[in-house]
Structure formats: structure tokens, C-alpha cells
Amino acid sequence: MSALSDVARLAEVSKATVSRALSGNGYVSIETRNRVVAAAAAIGYVVSSNASSLVTGHTKNVGVVIPFINRWFFGEVLEGIETALIAAGYDLTLYRLSADDAARRRVFEYFLVRKRVDAVIAVGIELTRTEVDLLRSLGKPIVGIGGAVEGMATLSIDDVAAAELITELLIGLGHTRIMHVGGSQQKQVDFRVHSQRLKGFTQAMRSAGLRYDDESFRPTDISIEGGYTAGLSILADPRSRPSAIVAGADEVAIGIIIAARQLGIQVPAQLSVVGIDGHDLAPMFGLTTLAQHPKSQGTMAVRLLLDELTDLTEPLDRPASNWNTFPVSLEVRQSTTAPPLP
Amino acid sequence: MSALSDVARLAEVSKATVSRALSGNGYVSIETRNRVVAAAAAIGYVVSSNASSLVTGHTKNVGVVIPFINRWFFGEVLEGIETALIAAGYDLTLYRLSADDAARRRVFEYFLVRKRVDAVIAVGIELTRTEVDLLRSLGKPIVGIGGAVEGMATLSIDDVAAAELITELLIGLGHTRIMHVGGSQQKQVDFRVHSQRLKGFTQAMRSAGLRYDDESFRPTDISIEGGYTAGLSILADPRSRPSAIVAGADEVAIGIIIAARQLGIQVPAQLSVVGIDGHDLAPMFGLTTLAQHPKSQGTMAVRLLLDELTDLTEPLDRPASNWNTFPVSLEVRQSTTAPPLP
DNA sequence: CTGCGGTGTGGAACCGGTTCCACAATCATC
DNA sequence: GATGATTGTGGAACCGGTTCCACACCGCAG
């Protein structure tokens, strides 16, 4: 409704002075400023961010591309990002990216390009070289969480090490027949993370000289249902049953525990289960897990981005491909113990 | 980078013609249009939505305020909204609204007002009269999902009827000692829904002439953990144990089932449990529930909003406070049966 | 042949701010 | 007292589109 010129008229100053008074850039005497502020308040004036963006070139808005919303890790990250952005006075525009290629291109070539966002946070998505180049050519900083690609700053835990560590915990307890139930290695949006975890698992097994074959890995959906279904099928036959399972994510681990309980298999007496992530439900299920902290990953991503946005004096010719590894913490609970005697 | 005037120069026409050719408003000969489109493609031109919004007054952007992200119902709704908005060429700006009053005011008085959003969807939030008026005075349509207030269009299931129905199912099976474990009645962002469900429960109990007292309702967090904790405490004492529980949400019901299993209480032989929502995990736990379809509620909200946005010839003087009740479906599974013989 | 409605196009104003530049006043410095 | 730096303010250009208006051309009815 009310525009800057209305404020100017009311305060009896020029538009330029109003702009300076309200934005805090440039010289304005204290009395003038007060008069302007009062006038603005009187008519309920709020800057039009459109008009402002048009001339300044930045929008105070960050685009977030994310493949899932209703999955624990992603929801947590999103929450962390949202909180941090709002606190910094930024808006968050959300784009859920499915595996659908057409939709994905649309987001990149239509939505993200229209000078609407200052920067992009990509969560759990492996961006293509082209996508990154497109964004960079527009001068938009990108930071990734989880999946990544060279040419952009990335935050994530070291998934290989995480899986390795949690597997070693089982090995250390004396387990030898260990299975990995994790994310499908098919091309998926969040493919990378789970192939890394699989890699960590196999490395640990190989280092310990334990048998590892096709049967040792079972792909599944990353969800409680996925783990449950896989669990039922794996645990059905007592002879082929492993003594321990490394789940690719806590949801999967929880599903497996539920399946085990249902089949009357004691956890951990007959079956040890470990997960990765530090899911909210882990304590409730007594799940031993390697916890990460997705919320603070979100916060940190925002901080990185804002730094880059304000440091934009030197126009992003910097290394740019720095990989920040996030800390994890081992949370040992009641789902792990030494293997049953044969 | 490239602006409309660049396209104009390349295609050897005026800016006005480029605008018409690309937006499809006004007369442009087919040859000219082709030339313009080709020129635009050649230099990778994309309209600046800022500039465009500045003059047209609308932004093709919808603000969504929502209290939780990582809770099933809210995540689903958000997904539905996102999909529908993107499909319609709209952006979605996300504001998570905590109970924190200051933050809430900030969102309303600062973020939502800056001519950045064309409309607002409020999910599970009881907006105050002031908030609604503020938005309406700016000519921004609002639609609510779940919590609502007069003066705005709202979508939700009939929570009273839902709770009543599912309670009656238990009563019909012969249960008489029924408890309700549900959302706290303290002032919370999504308070309304759960007070409605409690009301439906009490109504059903009263209608059936069953005893209902303070002990019959147990407030809890709406989460699996919340249900689990409440479940452990309720089910601990065999003498005071109810024969059936109506959970205020499926998460809670699932938590209760897990608690029951852990205590060695057979569901449904010794304890029937029902929920409301139709959570993804309900089938896995054999949970009998009254299912709603949050994703399509999101979609529907978007449709309503877009209708209002395009019909804006008559500037929203219409009834405006229409309450659309959403369909639910009863999904009977294995968590319910007749009460055990005394 | 004149007049009129439908097409097609360009010029220019405008949306609502920000910022460069010019100018004035004040104050400290030499 | 002249010089120059600091502070305060207004005018005007500009960001990148959209749209009103004027004008030209066309075909067709009277």
C-alpha cells in the first residue's frame, strides 16, 4: 500500500533520505532519522523487497533443494537450515527434488535462475557438473550437505569412516557373521551416502579378514518399513541368520529390531543391531548407533553460505571445493553384545 | 545477466514486443514471436521475477507457515503443498512457526508483509484475529489446514467426529474401560486438533454411558516416544489397565503398541489400540486407524488458493469463511478386538 | 470511397526502491 | 582567513520488466 514516497512526503524529506534513514546506509542526522522512522511506523510502511532486490541485486532469500521432507535426517537438516536463515533475516524457498529428471531440470533452469535466490543449499543431492556450473555462472554460492560434487563447499560426516567404525564395534565384540542392510545402490537422489556406507562396511570386513559376499549386503528402502521387511526376510531362516547387522540408517535398524522382536529373536542376545544417524527413536529402541547431528549441519551450512555471501568482495574465485567433515559420536546402547555361543 | 532489452536488440523489436511475445499477453505476430523466442534462447534470457513482480504486483510465491517439519502429518501436508505449487509454477517459502511469540510476530509483521508472497497457507496453526486481518488487509488470500479461525477458508477432517467414530468402534467391540492418550491441552501451536479429538472421545463415551473421569485422559507428546512413555506408565499396573486405548494420533498409538509388546501385553488380545491419521507405519504395526490423507489436503489447499488468486476480479469480499471437511476412511487392522474376558 | 474494428508494433510512463553525484553547511587545521 | 575533510540532504538516473496509449495497417461493411 504505502510506499517510500509517502513516507518521504509525511516526514518532509526526500526519498533518498528516507531510504538512507531506514536502511542505515549513508549519513542521516539523528533528528531526521527519528522523524522518518516515526512517519514510516505511522503509515505502516514496509519496504518492498522486490523493488529493493531489483536494484541491489540480492534477495535475502536462499533456495533449498532436498529430495525428501518426511524422512528424519532431511527433516532435521531442513529445520536447522530454516531456523538459521530466519534468524539471519533470510527467507527459505523450498524445492523438493524427486528423481524425475524433467522436474529437476525445471527447478534448475527455471526456478533457481530467476534472480529469486541469492544462494542454494543442496541437501543429500548429487548435483551434476552442469547444474553447479549454471549456478556458479550466475554468481550464486552453493553449499551441499551430504551428496556433493567438486566445485562446491560441502558438509557431511565421513560416511565411509562411520560405517567402518560401527562395523568394527561389532567385530570387536566377536561377531563374524555380519550383514549390511542399507540403501539401494541404484541411481537415486541420495545414492552417494549409502554407497559410501557400504564401502565402509566392506572395508571393515575385509580388514578383519571376515567373509564378505553378495549375501552380506541387502538393499532396502531407507525407512522403518524397509528395515522391517528386510529384517523379516533375513531373520526368517535360523541357519542363514547373521549374528549382527549393520544398518545403513537408524530407521532401517529400528525396522529390523521390530522384525526381530516379532519373530521372537532376542536383541541383542541372539542378534546385535547397529545403525548410523542418531535418530530420535534410537534411545527408545536401545539402538547402538553412530550419531550425527543433522540440525547443526543445517545451521553450519547456512553460516558458510552467509559468509560467502558477505565476503563477496572477492567474487568467488576461491578454492570453493572444500569438504568439511562433521563430527560423529558413538552412542552405545543395548542393541549390541557379543555373539551367542554356537 | 542478460536483460529484456538485450533480447529486444537481438530480435530487432521493442522491449514492449519482447514482453508481449514472452508473456503471451497482447498481440504479437507469429513470426515476431518466433524471432523473440529464438533470441531469448540464444542468450539464455530468463525474466527477472523481481522486476516483473514489481509492476504486476504478484509474485508467484506462496508462504507456508507450519509448526513442525519432522512430524508425519505436517511433512506429508508440506509435500502435497510443494508438489502442487511447483506444478502451478509457484514458489514455496517456508516459515516454521514455533510457539515463541516474538518469532511469530516477526514472521507475520516482517516476512509475510514485504510483498513477497501472494498468499499464505497456514498448516495446523490457529491464527489470531489480528494476524488474519493483517493478511487480508494486504489482499492476501489465506487458507488453513487443521487449525483455523473465522475469516479464512479452512480444510481439515472433522476431528470431533473422527475421534467419536474410532471410539465407537471400540465400544462396539464391547470395551468399557477405554482411555484416551492424546495431545496436551496446554496452549500449543497445534492445540486445536487435539482438543477436538478429546472432545470426540468424551462425547462417544458419554453417549454410550461409559465412565469417564480424569484418569481416562492422559496427555502426551504427539510422537512415538510420547506414546511409548505414556504406554509404559499406563500399562504398568495390571489392575488399573484399560482394555482399550484411543490414541490422539497414530504416532502415539504406535508408541503404545511398542510399550505393550515390551511389557509382554498382547495386542489386541489383552489390549486394543486405535489411532487417528493413517500414518505410513500403521500397516506395519497392524494398527486400526481412522485415516486421513494429508498429502491431498495440501494439494487441495493449493487449488483453493490458486482459485482465489485468479478469481481476484471480485476482491475477496466473498463469504471467505468456508470450512471444507475432508473425507476419512476407517482402516481396520489387527490391533483391535473384543476385550478379554474378566 | 469512407469509416470502423481487429492486429501488430513502438514510445514512454511507471512500479518502488537504491545510489551516484552535486551542493551546502559545519568544523578542524594551518 | 583560506583549505579541506566530514556530515547532511536533495535531484535524478537506474534496476528490468509491464502496460497504456498512439499510430499504422489491414480487411470488410455501408
Automatic annotation (TrEMBL), chains A, B:
Listed InterPro entries: HTH_LacI, LacI/GalR-like_sensor, Lambda_DNA-bd_dom_sf, Peripla_BP_I
Keyword vocabulary terms for this entry? DNA-binding, Transcription, Transcription regulation
Question: Per the record's keyword annotation, is Cytoplasm included, yes or no?
Answer: no
Return one GO MF term: DNA-binding transcription factor activity
Pfam families xref list: LacI, Peripla_BP_3
Answer whether the UniProt record assigns the keyword Transcription to this protein: yes
Q: Where is the HTH lacI-type domain?
A: 4-56
PROSITE patterns from the xrefs? HTH_LACI_1 (PS00356), HTH_LACI_2 (PS50932)
Q: Which PANTHER family is this protein grouped with? A: HTH-TYPE TRANSCRIPTIONAL REGULATOR GALS (PTHR30146:SF109), LACI-RELATED TRANSCRIPTIONAL REPRESSOR (PTHR30146)
User: Know the name of this protein?
Assistant: Transcriptional regulator, LacI family
Organism, by scientific name, is: Salinibacterium xinjiangense
